[in-house]
């Protein structure tokens, strides 16, 4: 081991109080950064998975142009009811579930009250996995053997005064331009992560929606994968294998506008936190090492008078910063990870945020990327903070340093 490393280690151990303070500053900074990024990661993961498993799926299969022009002419973009492509998609690797959905809108009436709604015709049997994040707040979910049952968003139900068991009339425009209506009985009320959706949405069996609109088929097929991280891989594979088919494959990221904006906002917040923590570490460690240089001026002068080179003095003080940064960052990772596990076990009660329908209990998710990032920030900021004090120590005039303690 080089002599300057041995001296640096001895100096760190010798100045226990100052070294402990420096290590604690770096450690608490790293732990705070780890907890903040872990909390935001948990919230993003919760919002992402809730959105995927209640509304979007991982990949949406539609006719080309449906997302741009389908609102004006939805019946021109229907997928066939019985298709070999559907069966082929179900057999693709990583595909956990595939479900058709028929989108429509119209009016829902209860007694003398009538308000507009946005509806989806779904296959109850295939929606079990795709709708894991749809929370039934009253009554029951749709069942495959019930052709007249519907479930209504709790916001829409509140606006209309609906309760479980009520019989309502749904009216919508048909493909031929006429008006059609069906009766349905409210089997349950539901809530998702998005309040705006719950205020206008209802779901009915696919056969009931097809009868109401006088059509066959569906507007989209929703693909649910075994892992969200496989989305890009599966998307690339599907686009390649179905390149000659009149099908468009749209990832959830292209449809989740609210989530994308939230993720961008959180990223800016994390960057601010990083800057604040890095500034605290730099100022604290720099001040501590400058005090060390001042107190050891005579010692530095004696060392250089005995033949120690200025470059060796520079390396010795830089090595002290490296040791403090390594110990502090490693300790911060251990402390932050343990604290995150305890907090996640207890849970963090969260109120409903803007645009959300209900509150939830949050946790903290620590990933290897965040842990490495926190360690690197703690280590590099400590190293940067020690650069100037180390340079000052190496530039001290030997004569002045020898006279310092007189």
Structure commentary:
- With 406 residues, this protein is an alpha+beta fold.
- It has two domains: 194 residues, no CATH class; 183 residues, no CATH class.
- 53% of the residues lie in helices and 20% in strands.
- The protein has 14 helices and twelve strands.
- A hairpin with a 5-residue loop joins strand 6 and strand 7.
- Helix 1 packs across helix 12 and helix 10 packs parallel to helix 13.
- The chain is elongated, with a radius of gyration of 31 Å.
Keywords:
6-stranded mixed barrel; 53% helix; two-stranded antiparallel ribbon; alpha+beta; 2 domains; 12 strands; 406 residues
Compact overview of the structure:
By secondary structure, this protein is an alpha+beta fold.
Order of helices and strands: HHEHHEEHEEHEEHEHEHEHHHEEHH
Roughly what percent helix?
Answer: 40-55%
Termini Cα gap: 34 Å
Class per helix and strand makeup: alpha+beta
Beta strand %: 15-25%
Largest sheet, order of strands side by side? 2-3-8-5-7-6
Q: Helix count, per DSSP?
A: 14
Estimate the mean pLDDT confidence: 86
